[in-house]
Amino acid sequence: MTQTISTGPAAGPAGRPAAPVPPPTTQQQDLRGLGVGLILLGTFLLGFLVYLYGLSAIQEARTQSTAYATLRGQLGELNQAVAPLGATTPGAPVALLNIPAIGVRHMVVVEGTTPENLELGPGHVRSTPLPGQTGISEIFGRRATFGAPFGRLLQLRRGDKLTVITGQGTAKYTIVAFGDSRRLVEDPAPNRLLLFTSCSAVVPTSYCYADADLTSAAQPDPGGRPAITSAETPLSGDSGALVLSMIWGLALAIISVAGTVAAARWSP
């Protein structure tokens, strides 16, 4: 039994050549282009999220490593007076924070609490004394992104201990209360440390904080603290970052539109 193999055009049911596939309609081309544009936009947005919740932590860890080496040298016995005790340059390392209950060890606290400063690690509010000094000291830290140094802050419990190392030695604190932007803590202790972070890691609309009392001897505050700006307050924004975000958003829109037009015009 033999089998004939046809090498000509494909035949239809009646032996006629099959009709050619019609070219895509304008509507189909538009839908294809829209799909390409959405894929491009989604890819860029995914990359942005990967940076925020992944690569930014690597950036913060690298900065912390460099700052730790700098501050450790300043805190050495022979160079102890070099470590900052009063007002200093924003972004400079000023203290080492240890909170064993939530796994925080030798975390470098930098001076200043602008969004840019908090990309480096927890930030000391410049208008308050350093931890261990007389008065109420304040430290801000991110709950998400850039290493989330205070990501577990709200897991602390009353009675948990923490220490802060500065150029004046080691200050010891005990957690006594918790508050937030709607319910402030009434603590009469004269020497305290407040640790601030966002109440939510997803939508930061309010802040929460832990209140700790100083249990070691208070050190003198040299004074001369500067007033802080609106960009250094809790949950503040950065106008420069807003402009940059708008520029990147416009670039994303242009790329998506260009991809849509290209797919509609040159797609086979």
How would you describe this structure to a colleague?
With 268 residues, the protein is an alpha+beta fold. Helices cover 29% and strands 21% of the residues. The chain is built from two helices and eight strands; from the N terminus they run αββββββββα. It has helices at residues 26-74, 239-266; strands spanning 93-99, 104-111, 123-124, 136-140, 161-166, 169-180, 192-198, 207-214. The chain has an eight-stranded mixed barrel. Strand 5 and strand 6 (169-180) form a beta hairpin. Helix 1 packs antiparallel against helix 2. The longest helix is centred in the first third of the chain and has 49 residues, at 26-74. The radius of gyration is 29 Å and the shape is elongated. It starts with 25 loop residues before the first helix and ends with a helix.
